[in-house]
């Protein structure tokens, strides 16, 4: 208390000057920030006083370091009220984080001066509630989030993908700056639960212990929030024949660091019959149609026994809770789901051979009103628990998870008429082939598979040492898991059971080299290095190694340059080797028959896979020429070279079928029956891509003075978002195995060289519209088979989608009292506005008939109405 007495004895009070870092942030955070205020106050008072007052404040700082909070806080409060010669100015917290690299796990000693620094300023750092431990690349506040009209956080992440640079994979999600066990524990929350969303820079993946190249988004939740949500949607194909419906009910509560969510979702889709579209009858069905109609005595429509899209049902439940336990956070999450689908695959026809006029001929009959079917059922159960918090200066997280899945498939292949044929051959007088046929057993191929995984992950991160340019941070992640799978087919004739243990570790180190804000090697700007190493071991395969190195350099405040290089020796994962076998009916184009077919595709593990190596190189430049990140220009070059690696089976072009004849089954007429689509080994694979983009994000200025909130019910500012992303495939070549020719995907396998994606959104809380378009350049597939060269040409084409939403509660003239319009949102989405489709032209000696619009894209334009109500 000596410091307090010393200061009080010298104080005559005068109000200090405190300036907010930015008007946009000040509107929701009035007043200066000190250590007493919650972390969402973004001011950093930098206190300067007379020598006597400085000594007193320094003494308070020393008491702070020794644990005497009360004395030090009172001194700081007095300074804010008014101490002679005491000046306070605010600095955004993100600037401090960007400058020093210090974050959530920084200690008091890191943030306050030592006894040897008494003549310098005292910097007290306070971070915003939920902020990540490094500066964000871009942020969206509550009004900007509301402009997208997303019903859930999961939908919002999909909508803002263009702002993240059009990432290829789903970004990693943090919640309030912390890792979470699974994204499913947060994506079901309503978007209104967010106070802010921060898109972190690329180096955030290494900082938080994730694989290099992944993007990270931090979700900053409101401190207090509660809602019950009912969500109903109906989608129809305007050409008719198919409707989709979904119903979801959820309850979400946030109370400080405690939150929980329960969500139940059910959906149903009607089948789309071939008879609903202008599609020719299948050749094998057309061949027997005259005999079948003659035997039945009436016309038969084969297409009513086949579907273009299956009937599907699904039901999912997700429950999650997070709460503090001392200095730690405990998270529990469980989910369960069931999915069923039924595909109609053909007419219920049985056949016998009879003698007529001294010759044998086939007699076909419909033996049921029920079409042949392919039925799939899958059930999934997951449970996870995680505990995160500080241990000995480390920010740690320990999670455990369990997942179980079961799949069953039943494919009707026809009717067994062997008994009837025996009676005909024996001349049984009690059986009249032209009369009513007795019961005939249905032949069904069945298979079942299951998979279980139990695992644990430990993650720890901290600043391990300080450099002049800031703190060096490290992250260590250890994963251990046990997996097993089983498969049985044809009533147990084929069986397989597999199990394996996996252990892998990842280490990352982030090193700041130059820092403009701290005047460390200032001519270089901001410069940093990220290093990461991985090692993985599995009982049934060899040891995997991977390393990555990245350099990030910002020579000017408006330019950000990044380059990375990496190498990995690849070994097949358990799922790739022994994943459960699943057989599904898939619709694809058969280049040999030049027709759309629906064969059985076999997915799962391939125990014959071997390892290889992958080398990656990337370089990117990002420019933000205007203040406030209104516009962002970026360009990125990527190269990936795989040698002896693992790949999915490519599109079944004639060249691929020639390379893997054992994976394709056709009947005597050449009709495609099944494809083994499990992973394959390749000899060499090389891909080079340049991606460039322009992103604009502008929010109109508020009409209220800075620091003052908008009056309740007043219109919110408009937000305009535009992204234009161009992908240019420089090269994409594969050698499947030595001795086979190089497969050029751009020249021979239907991969377009250019793709352009446009995303436009204009809105504010209460109403909005979005337009997205995707354009693909021309492509072609070539076959140089012995029967004659054939070329399939695909001209360039584009698809446009439109989205609209309104919230009637915010319309002028609607009463602010609680009524039918309260917390109601109505959304309308139109997919494929222009009803376009990818045309194809077949050139060559073996070219056949042209393809109809319904064959290429049977669904066409669809419209979806969604109603969401919060209670």
Structure description:
With 871 residues, the protein is mainly beta. The strands form 9 sheets. The protein has a 22-stranded antiparallel barrel. A 4-stranded mixed sheet has the order 3-5-6-4. The longest helix is centred in the N-terminal third of the chain and has 15 residues, at 51-65. A hairpin with a 5-residue loop joins strand 7 and strand 8 (243-255).
First CA to last CA: what distance?
52 Å
Rg: 33 Å
- Give me the count of strands: 44
Strand content: over 45%
Shape: globular
Query: What is the number of helical segments per DSSP (H or I, 4+ residues)?
Result: 15
Uncertain spans:
1-119
Mean pLDDT: 83
Summarize the structure.
The chain has 871 residues and is mainly β. Helix 1 (2-10) runs antiparallel to helix 3.
Summarize the helices and strands and which ones pair or pack:
Layout: H1 2-10, H2 23-26, E1 46-47, H3 51-65, H4 69-82, H5 93-100, H6 108-111, E2 122-123, E3 138-141, H7 142-146, H8 153-159, E4 172-175, E5 194-199, H9 204-207, E6 216-221, E7 224-237, E8 243-255, E9 258-269, E10 272-273, H10 283-296, E11 307-309, E12 311-325, E13 328-346, E14 349-356, E15 359-366, E16 372-391, E17 394-415, H11 418-425, E18 442-467, E19 470-489, E20 494-514, E21 526-538, E22 544-554, E23 559-570, H12 574-578, E24 582-585, E25 588-590, E26 595-597, E27 600-603, E28 612-623, E29 631-643, E30 646-647, H13 654-659, E31 664-666, E32 672-676, E33 680-681, E34 684-699, E35 719-735, E36 743-744, H14 745-748, E37 754-764, E38 767-776, E39 779-783, E40 790-794, E41 797-806, E42 824-831, E43 841-844, H15 853-856, E44 862-870
Parallel strand pairs: 4-6, 27-32
Antiparallel strand pairs: 1-2, 3-5, 5-6, 7-8, 7-44, 8-9, 9-12, 10-11, 12-13, 13-16, 14-15, 16-17, 17-18, 18-19, 19-20, 20-21, 21-22, 22-23, 23-28, 24-27, 25-26, 28-29, 29-34, 30-33, 31-32, 34-35, 35-36, 35-37, 37-38, 38-41, 39-40, 40-43, 41-42, 42-44
């Amino acid at each position: 208390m000596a410091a307090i007495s010393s200061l009080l004895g010298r104080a005559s009070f005068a109000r200090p000057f405190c300036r907010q870092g930015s008007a946009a942030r000040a509107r929701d955070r009035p007043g200066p920030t000190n250590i007493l205020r919650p972390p969402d106050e973004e001011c950093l008072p930098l206190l300067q006083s007379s020598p006597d007052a400085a000594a007193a404040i320094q003494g308070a700082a020393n008491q702070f370091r020794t644990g005497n909070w009360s004395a030090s806080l009172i001194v700081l409060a007095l300074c804010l009220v008014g101490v002679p010669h005491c000046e306070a100015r605010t600095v955004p917290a993100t600037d401090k984080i960007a400058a020093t690299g210090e974050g959530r796990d920084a200690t008091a000693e890191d943030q306050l001066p030592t006894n040897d620094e008494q003549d310098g300023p005292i910097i007290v750092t306070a971070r915003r509630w939920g902020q990540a431990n490094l500066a964000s690349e871009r942020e969206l506040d509550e009004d900007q989030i509301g402009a997208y009209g997303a019903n859930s956080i999961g939908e919002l992440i999909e909508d803002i993908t263009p702002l993240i640079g059009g990432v290829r994979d789903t970004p990693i999600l943090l919640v309030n700056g912390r890792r979470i066990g699974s994204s499913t524990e947060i994506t079901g929350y309503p978007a209104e639960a967010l106070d802010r969303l921060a898109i972190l820079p690329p180096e955030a993946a290494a900082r938080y212990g994730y694989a290099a190249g992944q993007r990270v988004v931090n979700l900053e939740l409101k401190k207090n929030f509660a809602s019950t949500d009912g969500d109903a949607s109906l989608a129809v194909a305007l050409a008719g024949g198919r409707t989709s419906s979904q119903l979801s009910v959820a309850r979400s509560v946030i109370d400080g660091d405690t939150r929980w969510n329960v969500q139940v979702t059910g959906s149903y889709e009607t089948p789309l019959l071939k008879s609903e579209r202008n599609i020719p009858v299948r050749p094998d069905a057309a061949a027997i149609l005259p005999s079948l109609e003659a035997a039945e005595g009436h016309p038969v429509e084969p297409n009513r026994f086949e579907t273009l899209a299956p009937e599907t049902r699904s039901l999912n439940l997700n429950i999650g809770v997070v709460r503090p336990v001392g200095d730690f956070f405990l998270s529990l999450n469980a989910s369960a789901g069931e999915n069923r689908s039924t595909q109609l695959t053909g007419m219920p026809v049985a056949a016998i051979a009879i003698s007529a006029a001294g010759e044998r001929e086939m007699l076909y009959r419909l033996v049921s009103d029920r079409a042949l079917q392919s039925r799939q059922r899958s059930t999934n159960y997951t449970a996870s628990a995680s505990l995160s918090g500080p241990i000995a200066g480390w920010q740690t997280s320990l999670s455990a998870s369990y997942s179980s899945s079961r799949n069953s498939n039943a494919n009707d292949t026809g009717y067994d008429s062997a008994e009837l044929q025996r009676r005909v051959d024996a001349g049984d007088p009690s059986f009249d082939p032209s009369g009513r046929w007795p019961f005939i057993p249905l032949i069904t191929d069945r298979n079942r598979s299951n998979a279980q995984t139990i695992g644990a992950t430990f993650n720890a991160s901290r600043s391990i040492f300080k450099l002049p340019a800031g703190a060096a941070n490290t992250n260590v992640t250890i994963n251990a898991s046990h997996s097993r799978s089983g498969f049985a087919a044809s009533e147990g004739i084929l069986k397989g059971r597999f199990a394996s243990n996996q252990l892998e570790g990842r280490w990352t180190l982030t090193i700041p080299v130059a820092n403009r804000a701290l005047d460390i090697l200032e001519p270089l700007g901001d410069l940093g290095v990220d290093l990461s190493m991985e090692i993985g071991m599995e009982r049934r395969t060899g040891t995997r190694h991977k390393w990555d190195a990245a350099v990030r350099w910002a020579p000017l405040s408006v330019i950000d340059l990044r380059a990375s290089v990496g190498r990995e020796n690849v070994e097949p994962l358990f799922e790739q080797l022994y994943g459960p076998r699943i057989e599904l009916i898939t619709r694809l184009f058969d280049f040999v028959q030049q027709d759309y077919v629906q064969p059985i595709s076999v997915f799962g593990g391939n125990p014959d896979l071997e390892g290889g190596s992958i080398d990656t190189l990337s370089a990117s430049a990002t420019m933000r020429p205007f203040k406030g990140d209104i516009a962002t220009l970026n360009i990125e070059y990527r190269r990936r070279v795989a040698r002896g690696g693992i790949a999915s089976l490519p599109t079944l072009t004639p060249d691929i079928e020639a390379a893997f004849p054992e994976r394709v089954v056709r009947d005597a007429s050449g009709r495609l029956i099944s494809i083994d689509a499990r992973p394959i080994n390749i000899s060499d694979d090389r891909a080079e891509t340049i991606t460039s983009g322009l992103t604009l994000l502008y929010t109109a200025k508020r009409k209220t003075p800075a620091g003052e909130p908008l009056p309740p019910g007043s219109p919110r500012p408009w937000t305009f978002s535009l992204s234009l992303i161009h992908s240019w495939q420089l090269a994409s070549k594969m050698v499947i195995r030595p001795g086979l020719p190089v497969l050029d995907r751009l020249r021979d396998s239907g991969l377009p060289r250019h793709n352009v994606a446009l995303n436009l959104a204009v809105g504010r809380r209460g109403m909005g519209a979005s337009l997205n378009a995707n354009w693909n350049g021309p492509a072609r597939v070539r076959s140089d088979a012995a029967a004659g060269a054939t070329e399939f040409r695909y001209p360039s084409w584009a698809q446009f989608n439109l989205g609209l939403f309104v919230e009637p509660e915010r319309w002028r003239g609607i009463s602010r009292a609680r009524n039918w319009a309260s917390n109601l949102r109505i959304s309308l989405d139109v997919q494929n506005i222009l009803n376009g489709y990818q045309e194809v032209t077949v050139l060559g000696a073996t070219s056949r008939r042209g393809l109809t619009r319904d064959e290429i894209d049977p669904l066409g334009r669809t419209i979806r109405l969604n109603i969401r109500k919060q209670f």
